Amino acid sequence: MSVHPEPASLYEMLACVLADDMRDREVGFTGLLTGEAAAIWGTGIPVVAMELARRTHAPDLTMLLAGCYHNPDLSVLDRMPDCEHDAQLRDLPAEARTRDYPGQWALKRGDVSFGFSSAVQVDRVGNINSVCIGDHDRPKVRLVGPILQPEHMTCFRREYVMMPRHERRCFVERVDFVSGVGFPGGRKGREALGLDWGGPRFVMTPLCIFDFDEEAGAMKVRSIHPGVAPEKVQAETGFDLGPLDNVPQTPVPDARRLDLIREVVDPRCLLLPRERGVAGPIMTGDTK
Amino acid sequence: MMKSGSKLLSAAEAAASVPDGSRIGFGGFAVYQKPMGFVRELVRQKKKGLTIVGSAQSYEVDLLAAVCALDTVETSYVGLEAYGMARHFRRAVESGRLKVVDYPEMVSWDRFRANQENLPFWPVPFLGGLDILTTNSAIRKFDCPLTGRIMYAVPAANPDVVVIHALAADERGNVVTPAKHLLPQANDVLLARSCDRVIVTAEKIVDNAFIRRHADQVQIPSYRVEAVVEMPWGAHPTPALGAYHADRSAYEAWVETADGEAVLERWLDRHVRVADNDAYLDAIGGARLARLIDLGDLT
């Protein structure tokens, strides 16, 4: 163990919070995202979190990379692949490889415990949108479409929404198009919609972590990252967050877990950048 | 005794059999193994008013949107993955020229499963609260007659014609899938079972003896196939798993076509307004294509 490790980065801190939320024997699903920020938030942090959980309290957690590769051996890679269904991943050693869709996991029976998604908009009840900004039939901006978000937010047992940017235009009162359902009307609201389980668990941003009052159906600030003023969180959010004075600080990982991430899980920085300047703000505060 | 029949057509003949206004299901998935050679032939023949029905779309829809060949796209995703938004598609939608009917990704596959089972719809319980419902009157809510729970009847995909790109097929229409296949090839198989009109473009036309040696891998038998087209590098610039990788420089060249009308016109002159697929491959260049070959695991 290093005597004086570099302080934790934002990404490492979020990975540790996620790992703490995972339980043994769960099944976690993450896509293979591309582009600097999207790849870090959508693939890097989730994979580090799952690998960390597997090496600590959850040895029998199953990671589904790109939804297809069960517990792949990332140590044989020179770089993270940027295509989900081509030769590099096809030849990656894994416990199981999915050839059909759905494959080994019975999606609609709830086999997947948790997944990760990102969105262009999130609203106060946790609905997410990746379809369009403005009117659907004549949009101001047309986006990629719902992809698997509807299933992530209902068939998976819970969802972590990863938002690389925390800005007012992303955190809105009501999304322009609901492509993934949060807690409208709370848990009872979801039941009335015919939804059996699932929904967003956390929304993670560079400023804070949100979770949900699932009864009331409202997103609330669970913790604010070290060095971030509560006023900043409210200013960058397009709906009222209520009093933030007593919101705890996001826990910073201890040296043992940082060592695990840096020496065992991601020794070659394939998943998370570590150079100063690109690794996100340095986190110092109460360690966990 | 009658001789075994050949379904071999030229790309031009096969594309000519797809009328304007058709609902087309293209094989492959997202940016993988799309029947791009056939799509270029559709552009060459100036098809209009097409509807693309699928589960995840990319370069094929962006090209057809660029030349205003589309009325409607029904899918879960249109984008170029690592190469960003499909900008021609995006512009067409934002201008109101192109209609999008959004479906969840797994449900998009289920719509073809409905056709495979010859059902008018697929029951889906998890659509409540989505604007996919408020923007699509074709999806109908109903109570499950056995349990009473809320369900939604999602209409089958109902393609008029399905076009897939395969590695090998014989003249009769037996199609070989690679032993180590992935999702995009699974989608090819599903699509081929969902429609009475299936057109297959193939890297190579093989003899029937080759088919018989790979019987385990023939998931699309001759009786499901209407026409076979020899189309080497027919998925280019998308990859054909087991044959070649994606052509990243061709992706970049395509992305640039959204910068302006003149760039698009130059690209079309060079890649589409040519005689046929062979002329396209000559324009790309043999040396470049050779470097894309996928050696697989050499087994």
How much is the average pLDDT of chain B? 96
Order of helices and strands of chain B: EHEHEHEHEHEHEEEEHEHEHHHH
* Backbone CA Rg of chain B: 19 Å
* Main beta-sheet strand count, sense and barrel state of chain A: 9 strands, mixed
Concise structural overview:
The complex is a heterodimer of chains A (288) and B (299). In chain A, strand 7 (121-123) and strand 8 (128-129) form a beta hairpin.
Please describe what this structure looks like:
The complex is a heterodimer of chains A (288) and B (299). Chain A is of the alpha/beta class and 288 residues long. Helix content of chain A is 22%, strand content 19%. In chain A, the strands form four sheets. In chain A, strands 5-4-3-2-6-11-13-14-15 form a nine-stranded mixed β-sheet, with helices on one face. Chain A has a three-stranded mixed β-sheet with strand order 8-7-12, with no helix packed on it. Chain A has a two-stranded antiparallel sheet with strand order 1-16. The longest helix of chain A has 19 residues, at 36-54. Chain B is an alpha/beta fold and 299 residues long. Chain B folds into two domains: 8-102 and 158-290, Glutaconate Coenzyme A-transferase (3-Layer(aba) Sandwich), CATH 3.40.1080.10; 107-155, no CATH class. Chain B has helices at 11-16, 36-44, 59-66, 87-94, 105-116, 131-134, 183-192, 208-213, 248-256, 261-271, 277-284, 286-290; strands at residues 8-9, 23-26, 50-53, 70-75, 99-102, 121-124, 140-143, 150-155, 161-169, 175-176, 198-205, 227-230. In chain B, the strands form two sheets. In chain B, strands 1, 2, 3, 4, 5, 9, 10, 11 and 12 form a nine-stranded mixed β-sheet that branches. In chain B, strand 9 (161-169) and strand 10 (175-176) form a beta hairpin. Chain B is globular and about 60 Å long. Classes of the chains: A alpha/beta (288), B alpha/beta (299). At the A-B interface, strand 10 and helix 4 of A face helix 4, strand 5, helix 5 and helix 7 of B.
